Amino acid sequence: MATLSAGHLATDFASGAVPALLPFLVKRFDLTYALAGLVMLAWAISSSIVQPLFGLWSDRRGALWLLPTGLALAGAGVAVAAVAPSYWLLLVLVTLSGLGTAAYHPEGSKYAAYVSGARRASGMSLFSIGGNLGYALGPLAATALVVTLGLNGGLLLALPGLVVAAALLLAVPYLRSFEPDRHPGSGDAPDEDRPRALLVLLGVIAFRSVAWFGLLTFVPLFEVARGNSEAYGNRLLAAMLLTGGIGTLVAGPLADRVGRRAVLIASVVAVGPLILVYVLAGGLPGALALALVGVCVIGTFGVTIVMSQEYLPRHIALGSGLSIGLSIGLGGVAAVGLGLLADAVDLRTALYVSAAAAVPGALLSALLPASGARTRLAARPAV
Asked: Average of pLDDT values for 121-138?
């Protein structure tokens, strides 16, 4: 699990660097808010639309090689994007980085489920904490490197991905030992898939993602519009991501104890009001509200992955790919729409819309059935 979590950290380290680079790239290429949102859309679509396809491939054939390959591509893509000579090449490189993210997540989530055994929400929380820390560290590292070394310093963002990709290559035999051993008549066949329940969950994730990507894309730019520095905005972004990582350590075990559904409902209900506090209050209260949004969204990210796997137990990599991919893809589409709104009106209005988007997600979450699996994945002993 440690290697998988480290891979998740390095993958999402690259992802977290993308929005942190935006204020610097906006200044370099003189971008509108809509064009800034298009950068996020390029990354989001490439890292989401194909993600279920990677998951389906993994469920049918197995694809452990996606772990090191996807990780290396995610890191290298965003690093070279920092020094792209043109806006259109920037979009291409961000897209390649997104494809690396798409390749890593379904396979990594599947093996995290294998390793976790019966306490799947707790295990997935440990897997998710790596990604959450990566998202938090990515903006801090990107800002520090660009402020100190200029955009050329962004090339160093490739190092975590390349180093951990090498470690994952060495860990492939060990990870393979955890694959389930299901022979006919073994009595440990998975439950039936529940696609309708998964569709409701995907609806919750979709609306929550609109709210989340509004913050992820525009918090640094909103703080600049308020008169603060790019570095201050990125610190707020990093704090939101870091507290979300801490929340993961609480949400996973709590979901195992009281139920995934209850934890998810409570978190989604809180998102909209907290965004309003951030926009209206600002200062310390706003920063605290933003941190709590991170707890509510990122903290339950692993919970939604587990629920998708338990709603689709015969295709767990596909379920993971759909839940992760949809959240990224629709969030990226929302980033462009919110950017157009910000250009036409202002950023404050766009953030109000982000807060409102969480409301239908909260209503849908009440329709979710229980997701606890009646059987568990039986892993072969590690050798």
From this structure: 72
